[in-house]
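Comment thread on ticket #2218

A.B. wrote:
> Attaching the input chain for the structure job we discussed in standup.
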Amino acid sequence: MLFTLEPLQAAEGDCLLLHWGSASNPNLAVIDGGPGRIYEDKLRPRLTEILTRRGLNRLDIDLAVVSHIDLDHIVGIKKLFSALKKEIEDMVPANRRQLSVKRLWHNTFNDILGDGIDRYYRTLTASVQASVGGEPNPSVVNDLEAALVRRHATPPAQAMVMAYDIARVLAGHGEGRTLRSDHQFLFNRNETAALNSPFRRNNAPTLITAEMTRTPVKIDGLEFTVLGPQEVEIKALQTAFDKYIKKEGLTAQAVLAAYADQSVNNLSSIVCIAGMGGKQILLAGDARGDKILEGLRRTGHLVGNAPLHFDILKVPHHGSDNNVDADFFKTIIADTYVFSGDGKHGNPERTTLDWLVKARGKNAKYSIALTYSITEIDAGRKLDRKKKKKPWSSARDSLKAFFDDAKQNGYQFTLQEGAPIQIDLGDEKVGY
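C.D. wrote:
> Ran it. Output below, let me know if you need it in another format.
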């Protein structure tokens, strides 16, 4: 049995490859595609390498997943679908097209907030929604920052962070609409399955939520159990959005302010368990820890106060301490904890790692996998603190000092830092 998770370096984002089946006939999923140039620099080269090493003319990606529409998750998948569409538009013969994607899972903004959100965004200029190199449009960030300071008396340091986050939501919506359009183009030409296949409601594609996907689905032997988002939360978001725009008026400023906390994106993050042969991976996206635990209890995986074990936990939101707490790591334990992130926005956070290590105790043996080296992550975290005008102390703030201290105090975890990372759960390994 082949069952391997391969996290790629994806800057501050996520880009995961999941291999399953058998070494002689493997399947492949791409879960999130990272921001910026991750597609060109990491994802596409790795896909080409797999194709070449397997001696294929065409590599079929069985599943592509966008956990949610943040730029650090969606950009690479959007670029993949845009490339597939362009090949057809350029009339590249089928036998010369190297990649295909059999199905896409993607909850778009109008899925989450209804058609009203899409109508609203059409009133905004393309430049407001557009990303620049997979990053929010700098001019939009600057305008928002100035507006927050001028209109709301937001402190400058806080305004800078909020402006970036709000612009990222706008750009993510633009990327999401493009991805959905490109998928529809490919679907109309029988190049891919219906959106969110095989999940359906009333014989039509449906939003992927826990309630709409009560029965686990199998894709070529790999079983997926969806834990979130919850439909009740999505409906609450729709109601709150409608109420907000009726109260404040359908203005860009009102809607931007409503999204300042990123709640729409992270509450709508697809969370699922991927299982095969008795092994399980918890793919947490950017969901909040309490929502993940709710989903596990609702599906009967988590009962009472007993800890729940997974073979791999992809730690939520790149190890941000805003998404989890110490109890999360006491409740969910794993053999391997995967932390993506290069230090931008402070992730992975030292506080999160401290919660994990103390929750497991000194005698527990497990692995912590970082997609970048500690040196690279600390450089990014130090720069993030500088931008926020916060002091930096290596002893107090660096991951290097944290891990050195943990080892000196007898903690038994194994640390893996930097790519390539391949975590094999089956008796066969990825040889390509």
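A.B. wrote:
> Thanks. Noting for the ticket: Residues 2-424 form one domain.
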